[in-house]
Design brief:
Elements: E1 6-10, H1 12-17, H2 24-35, E2 39-43, H3 45-51, H4 56-66, E3 69-71, H5 76-87, H6 96-107, E4 112-114, H7 124-136, E5 143-145, H8 147-150
Parallel strand pairs: 1-2, 1-4, 2-3, 4-5
Helix pairs in contact: 5-6
């Protein structure tokens, strides 16, 4: 059966997760499935900026995987949506970069964002708030998941 790759945004935590004992298996399998074409990976300047302070091995992995992704520019629409999330109190200004990941993915029509950030992104009450603001602002709801929830476990590891 022919399957069209889903537009997916993976934030910085997914790349770092490849080197974390608790998250490495799912992160690595997700990134392998990006390379195989299961997912159409959307990237952002936000990730590029965060990679500047990431450990070398995380930066190197990102560079390898970024060849399989599509870098899309940060838009005024994403910054406006970020402000809407902040004004709604989903997170405080201190965590503005976290909600900018969600805003970037939303305005670029990603089906979902994949993250290990359970505090500010992949959290049941925050997901509802993000999607309420998305609808209010004229965008589609977005799926927000950990890599564990989206990988195909049937694919050979």
């Amino acid at each position: 059966m022919f399957e069209i790759a889903q537009r997916v945004y993976a934030d910085t935590s997914v790349f770092g997760g490849a080197f974390d004992e608790d998250f490495s298996d799912a992160s690595r399998l997700f990134l392998k499935q990006v390379k195989s074409g299961r997912f159409h990976l959307i990237l952002s300047p936000i990730i590029e900026k965060e990679m500047l302070v990431a450990p070398v091995k995380v930066r190197e992995l990102y560079q390898t995987i970024s060849e399989y992704g599509e870098m899309l520019p940060l838009s005024k629409e994403a910054l406006r949506l970020q402000d809407a999330y902040l004004n709604a109190g989903i997170v405080t200004q201190k965590w503005a970069a976290d909600v900018l990941h969600v805003a970037h993915a939303t305005v670029h029509n990603c089906r979902m964002i994949v993250s290990w950030n359970f505090r500010h992104i992949v959290h049941y009450d925050k997901i509802a708030l993000y999607n309420a603001i998305n609808i209010q602002e004229g965008y589609s709801p977005i799926g927000i998941h950990s890599p564990q929830e989206v990988i195909d476990y049937e694919e050979n590891v």
